[in-house]
Fold this protein.
Amino acid sequence: MKILMLVATSVATDTRVLREARTLVDAGHTVHIIGRSVPADFVPGDGITVSSVGTSSVFRSEGGPSLAGRKLPPHLRFARWLLLPEHRRSSFGRWAAGAVKDAQAREFDVVHAHDFTALAAGDQLARERKVPLVYDSHELWTGLPREFRPTPLADAREKRVEAECGGRASAIITVGDGVADALKGVHGWDDVTVVRNTFPLRDSHPAVPEQPTGLVYAGRIAAYRELETIAAASRHVDLPITLCGPADQTWLTSFDPGRVTVLGALPLEEASALMSAAGLCLVTHSDKWTNHCLALPNKLFHAISLGLPVVATDVGELGKVVRQHQLGTLYAPGDAADLARAIREAVADFPRYVCNVEAARPALCWDADAARLRAVYEKLGSAQADDRGEG
């Protein structure tokens, strides 16, 4: 089948989108992705093509300077907080309109809409062409943290749009059992396929040290990631702690890192090497928003792919998976003393946790999730064949 993917990201760093696209191409399909401000030099790989729509809004032209990451005086901080919802709505709306225009000139048999920001555009295209729509929900949209003023009317509208457009989808995919159950509860959808953000199972991975030499957090450096708790705990543990990843510079200006070393974003292999050398990974999330309680962070599966135990926040689905497979230790969110305790226990029982992670890798890898994704498309292909009288 010719699959059209829509995603309001740059694609180049979107591991979920690229991993799904590669899996479907390897299964014999072709994939075209319409992304958002995709780097001009990005090469997606054989069988995958990409086009790009810009990110302008009524408040900022394409490529214009952003206020994010700048230290602003109080009146400008207030103005940004007040206007950010309108900027986001305008930006995503213009991207969706551009994506529809791009897609209308293409041939496709299926529309695969990644996340709510692409859903309405995907629904429009699927109905125009009378082809199946796949809704791939990367999180519970109604449970997202808000960094701007309350928008109850817009929130209600988005919930209604998700229910209507998602209700017409031929298949619904999401990232974990918690989000799947929440979607069922919010919208009454009873057939949601879970395709997690796991990593491919490596034939081999870098050697795990006999004892950990440090702890690494590899993920976004921003609010609601328990990074303040990590910084506070760093003063009470002997092992060095490193944070690496893309940062919210506005948030970072007021962050006190304690004894933590803060690095910028690293290429995947460099981050993997840093994690493997340290031996222990920090997988942390706050419990402030519904989505955090439902999330299974990429960094958990990244650690598992490298055979590394974790020290994780005991919150929702994350705590459930770590506890189920005994992948490491857990601590109470916001409690620096408990995090220090969890680190000490992980170090003391490190060899056992290494064995547990190794045993869990086959169940918590992309091979298992890729099979679920392929099954969704096999079902769609069979339905289309039946419609053509070929079944």
Summary: The mean pLDDT is 88. The radius of gyration is 22 Å.
